[in-house]
Amino acid sequence: MLRKTWWHRQWKKLRAKVPTHDEIFASRWLKPLAPYFNKPYFWVGSRRKVALAVGIGLFAGMMPGPTQMLTALLLAYVLRANLPVSLVTTLYTNPLTYLPLYYAAYELGWYVLAGQNGEAMMSFADWKQVMGNGSELRHALAEQARYLLVGVPMLSGSLAVIGYVTVRVVWRWRTTYKWRHRHVDDGQK
């Protein structure tokens, strides 16, 4: 009981600090966007809308730097997903996670394009040797970029599907658990 009360207090504190969508669109900067984004379906917290928003945010989070939130916003608009969740979910990529994620995408792309043919990935020594010559470096970067061009969409799509399914399953499990728990409590009274 104490734990539930503590979580409820924390949730109330957080909700008090987060502006409503009407307060957001009262801003002079965002007021011109109100006709497009001040629709109820962009703010609904249903299982389907939130799961779709998490998938969109995970997909858009792998986009290059400044385009992440814009991509999430446009996809959420087209697919009518929950806007705040879409935008916040893109924040899983940050200065600490960006390089490991892109390296994983590079390795995934390498495995799909070259790994099955037995080609070796460029070693650190190979990169060191190429760094001295500008034309060789450009050629190496162009050649290696194809792995990213394949790996990034594959990784971001995989993360989106995993996030979507996870939210749907966890939400369903939690709802079922609460429903069963409520009926057990009602039977005991």
From TrEMBL:
Keywords: Membrane, Transmembrane, Transmembrane helix. InterPro entries: DUF2062. It holds the Pfam family DUF2062. The chain crosses the membrane at residues 50-79, 147-171. Residues 31-180 form the DUF2062 domain. This is DUF2062 domain-containing protein. It comes from Vitreoscilla massiliensis. The lineage of its organism: Bacteria, Pseudomonadati, Pseudomonadota, Betaproteobacteria, Neisseriales.
